[in-house]
């Protein structure tokens, strides 16, 4: 099989004075894969996303990006530009006073001129149906609007993969349906953490469950439920669940 975009191998993690969260987690994402992750509250799904992005350090384990080991802070910079993390809380993503500044931040940070960054931001906002939002005050947006603006900020960096942490939180049915359309129109590898099984069935091809600090991709039916939704929107078919 081809080299994955990223892989997490035998990741262990526990918070200081907190629970042991991950114990031997393995996970990888290849180009064009669309994977959903489902699992009870507090099983470590968000922690896994933060470990991948270098926001918290695992106590043990290896991270690879296109086959290269990632450990020092500088190694994470290209990874963070290529894998767009949509934070569970939009407030963690949106830090500027206006929507335009928030969405233009990524391209500016990647070396685009302010004019180019502005054009990219306006184009992405328009693609997400957010025309006219550029001068809105970010902290006054509704929860659903913040979520879409966060997604715009991630897409403005044109990442090769998206890692979305509970993207349907705060979305009404219409916006949720809009998000399904947006995600299905993107030609990008993606991982979506969600409690919303129907949403995952509509947007991903495989759904894995996280349990006991692990996701095992190959055949461990004790900890791993592998589901193929043969086409987006079809009823998921469960494999390997004993
Ligand atoms: N900074 C922290 N310090 C101590 N414990 C933490 C910290 N952040 C998270 N935890 C704990 O670690 C565990 C895993 O949290 P995490 O947010 O990764 O779970 P999750 O699977 O994403 O949950 P949910 O589905 O509720 O979003 C939880 O028990 C949580 O309370």
Secondary structure layout:
Elements: E1 6-14, E2 20-29, E3 34-38, H1 45-52, E4 60-65, E5 68-69, H2 73-82, E6 83-86, H3 90-93, H4 99-109, H5 114-127, H6 143-155, E7 161-165, H7 173-185, E8 189-193, H8 197-203, E9 206-209, E10 226-228, E11 237-239
Parallel strand pairs: 3-8, 3-9, 6-7, 7-8
Antiparallel strand pairs: 1-2, 1-4, 4-5, 9-10, 10-11
Helix pairs in contact: 4-5, 4-6
Bound molecules: adenosine-5'-triphosphate.
Would you write up a description of this structure?
The protein has a single domain (6-217), classed as Rossmann fold (3-Layer(aba) Sandwich), CATH 3.40.50.300. The strands form 2 sheets. A 7-stranded mixed β-sheet has the order 6-7-8-3-9-10-11, sandwiched between helices. A 4-stranded antiparallel β-sheet has the order 2-1-4-5, covered by helices on one side. It has helices at residues 45-52, 73-82, 90-93, 99-109, 114-127, 143-155, 173-185, 197-203, and strands at 6-14, 20-29, 34-38, 60-65, 68-69, 83-86, 161-165, 189-193, 206-209, 226-228, 237-239. α4 crosses α5. A hairpin with a 2-residue loop joins β4 and β5. The chain is built from 8 helices and 11 strands. It is globular, with a radius of gyration of 18 Å. It is of the alpha/beta class. Helices cover 33% and strands 23% of the residues. Residues 217-242 have low confidence and may be disordered. The structure holds adenosine-5'-triphosphate. Belongs to the ABC transporter superfamily. This is Cobalt/nickel transport system ATP-binding protein. Residues 223-242 are annotated as: Disordered. It comes from Desulfobaculum bizertense DSM 18034. One of its GO terms (cellular component) is ATP-binding cassette (ABC) transporter complex.
